[in-house]
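Predict structure. Chain length: 254.
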Amino acid sequence: SVWYLMLNNKEKLFSNKKIRKAIALSIDRKALIEKIKMGSGVIADSFIPSVIPGKKGFFRQDYDAKAYGIEYNPTEAKKLFEEGLKELGMTASSIGTIKLLSGNSDVAQKEAQFYQEQLKVSLGLNIQLEPVTQQIRVQRMSSKDFQIVLAGWGPDYNDPMTFLDLWLSTSGQNNTNWSSAEYDKIINAAKAETDPAKRMDLLASAEKLLMEEMPIVPTFYRKRAALIKPNLKNVVDRALSPDTDFRFADIQNN
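Prediction complete.
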């Protein structure tokens, strides 16, 4: 699963692509994984995780995420932020307080506090945290009643499309108020393409456009550890649900 900041593009500040990119460059994902997630995650510098298949191997092996350029870069973030404010006719003092909606679990609140600090230090943004129950968070996401929200997505099936068609203008999961006719065109072309290699190239171009427009800011992929007895054999772990399959498992006592 991939976790990300969802930006409400209807908000004046987030209607600017440079501002959205600046937010992406403001987040030290390595520090997030090491200090907040305590190693239970992998840096996300793209939207599609490394375990999803692609054209020749895994999608991330075929299409390098480094090409998207959303790694931590506070200097470039500040530059883009100032350019974006100028394009919007805004000043730093006119922004006011930005509300960050998150779950109210200890883990979610620690992550929210991390982003709060990162955006303050890098961009000078004043972030007010709004921890709520899972039910309220989902309701407010569905009604697009947020400025920034912590969100995540786990795949329904083992293919990049289950991540990328979220952001179609007609998708019920697209709560960003962002839409792109070009993005819709690419995704729909991929849905109709029968050549597997050409289809993957289309999906890669869709992800590239998504990372250029940045209506959402990927931060990490979830990683979980398992403790298994040495004499328990043939347990199958999958990247997709069901996570652990014991149908072929057996206990060897010798």
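Summary: The radius of gyration is 19 Å.
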